[in-house]
UniProtKB/TrEMBL annotation:
GO terms for cellular component: membrane. This is Nucleobase-ascorbate transporter 2. It comes from the Eukaryota. It is found in: Membrane.
Length: 524
């Protein structure tokens, strides 16, 4: 038997991911685009409901307060998504709430001056205003780093090798939101996971009028089936005598969102009153803004690949971060109890549906704004048990992580230097945040526990984030270990042409601003 040729055992690196049905600037039919946009809206509900559901009761808020915060968060998410897809990176990314902001927000909630307020409603309002003030101040970090192009300068130290652990851990780092949550209600979670994989992968060639309907709408179909099944279990009394925690995770009537939601309510800035400002709170929040910046950088790189676009040039990435800072400012003004970051699950859905169209994401932003105003209808969809979302996350977070690993094709993985950097950055990126999580669960405070609360919040927030730890380790090692002689091994000859807007002719097609705005903001 003849020895295999080199091209038979290896695959040439590809600038753009192949096999997508629609790329960033090609659009499906209007009917299909609207259905896909609605699917992205449903997926974004998971995080939009989970964050307020956890934080509002800690602040002394009622179910009515929780519904208002969920509606406000969705409304601002819709605005931020439109801004980002029109004027930011222009990538098809949903800008959603971020778990990175949980550490500083919980620290504000436990502030002694706020905890001493006896009236729950007054405590809720005062805490909300303190969080708003901290978000407004902290948003300046991304606004300054983005619009001054300082983040573009920083990104010159990134290479394909250094980005692999960062993008991979944008997905893998969220492992605790996957199966550990599915396990809280396996009778709903496992069928959802199996059904979603079956529809999106095994039955993807099932066509209706030339449309792979099961692959394209796997999320909508499987959520509808499992939600109906969960409702049947609830109505039949299957959870009547089960523990409270099981009921909370499995029942479809435990969220109390529909009964508490108004029919129509338009969120508006400063609806909770004038924000209050505290330097300690703001400094802790700045760490979350930095974490959100790093996580979004990884997610933008993954989204560009899943939209079959070239990697965003440095100034486009920086422009997107600037608009994300504006988004966090809006979060603070409206009072959403969270900052903004790229929704990782929605990036994964681009790959699952093989539709990377920008228009689909803009339609989903329209749904967010529409249903956040029509409270009762929005609350109906928002009452889907979180276990159902967690089952989908198991697939979509993994898909985003694998996009990060795909950047290894541009590097030399027969180099001991590269193996060392990728391995150490990936391991520490998972291990350090896990240590911080375990320590916090046992001691009820983070490993950083000095008299300076702002200092504790800053360190604990930074090291709770897997992509942030991975970026610190990978970029440091990549730029200090034999970096002069290893440009080719690191993938720099491929990467360098995407650093500038004019470095590759395709950049103009993907990243040019609409309405001929490039005349006023010429690309660098």
């Amino acid at each position: 038997m003849a020895a295999p040729k080199p091209e038979e055992i290896s695959f040439p690196p590809m600038d753009q991911l192949q096999g997508l049905e629609y790329c960033i600037d090609s659009n499906p039919s209007w009917g299909e685009a609207i259905a896909l946009g609605f699917q992205h809206y449903i997926l974004a509900l998971g995080t939009a409901v989970m964050i307020p559901s956890f934080l509002v009761p800690l602040m002394g808020g009622t179910d009515g307060d929780k519904v208002r915060v969920v509606q406000t968060l969705l409304f601002v998410e819709g605005i931020n998504t439109l801004l980002q897809t029109l004027f930011g990176t222009r990538l098809p990314t949903v800008i959603g709430g971020s778990y990175a902001f949980m550490v500083p927000i919980i620290s504000i909630i436990h502030d002694t001056s706020l905890m001493s307020i006896e009236d729950n409603h007054v405590r809720f309002l005062n805490t909300m205003r303190a969080v708003q003030g901290a978000l407004i101040v902290a948003s300046s970090i991304q606004i300054i780093l983005g619009y001054s192009q300082m983040w573009a300068i920083c990104s010159r130290f990134f290479s394909p090798l250094g980005m692999v652990p960062v993008i991979a851990l944008v997905g893998f780092g969220l492992f605790d939101r996957g199966f550990p949550v599915v396990g809280r209600c396996v009778e709903i979670g496992i069928p959802m996971l199996i059904l979603f994989i079956a529809f999106s992968q095994y039955l993807k060639n099932f066509l209706t009028k030339q449309l792979p309907i099961l692959e394209r709408f796997a999320l909508l179909i499987s959520i509808t089936v499992i939600w109906a099944y969960a409702h049947l279990l609830t109505a039949s009394g299957a959870y009547k005598h089960r523990p409270e925690l099981t009921q909370l995770n499995c029942r479809t009537d435990k969220a109390n969102l529909i009964s508490s939601a108004p029919w129509i309510k338009i969120p508006y800035p400063l609806q909770w009153g004038a924000p209050t400002f505290d330097a300690g709170h703001a400094f802790g929040m700045m760490a979350a803004v930095l974490v959100s910046l790093i996580e979004s950088t990884g997610a933008y790189k993954a989204a560009s690949r899943l939209a079959s676009a070239t990697p965003p040039p440095a100034h486009v990435l920086s422009r997107g971060i600037g608009w994300q800072g504006i988004g966090i400012l809006l979060n603070g003004l409206f009072g959403t109890l969270s900052g903004s970051t790229v929704s990782v699950e929605n990036v994964g859905l681009l790959g699952s549906t093989r539709v990377g169209s920008r228009r689909v994401i803009q339609i989903s932003a329209g749904f967010m704004i529409f249903f956040s105003i029509l409270g009762k209808f929005g609350a109906l969809f928002a009452s889907i048990p979180f276990t159902i979302f967690a089952a989908v996350y198991c697939v979509l977070f993994g898909l985003v992580a694998s996009v990060g690993l795909s950047f290894l094709q541009f590097t030399n993985m027969n180099s001991m230097r590269n193996l060392f950097i990728v391995g150490v950055a990936l391991f520490l990126g998972l291990s350090v945040p896990e240590y911080f999580r375990e320590y916090t669960a046992k001691a009820l405070h983070g490993p950083a526990h000095t008299r300076g609360g702002w200092f504790n919040d800053f360190l604990n927030t930074i090291f709770f984030s897997s992509p942030t730890v991975a970026l610190l380790v990978a970029v440091f090692l990549d730029n200090t270990l034999d970096y002069k002689d290893s440009a080719r091994d690191r993938g720099m000859p491929w990467w360098v042409k995407f650093r500038t807007f004019k470095g590759d002719s395709r950049n103009e097609e993907f990243y040019t601003l609409p309405f001929n705005l490039n005349r006023f903001f010429p690309p660098s």
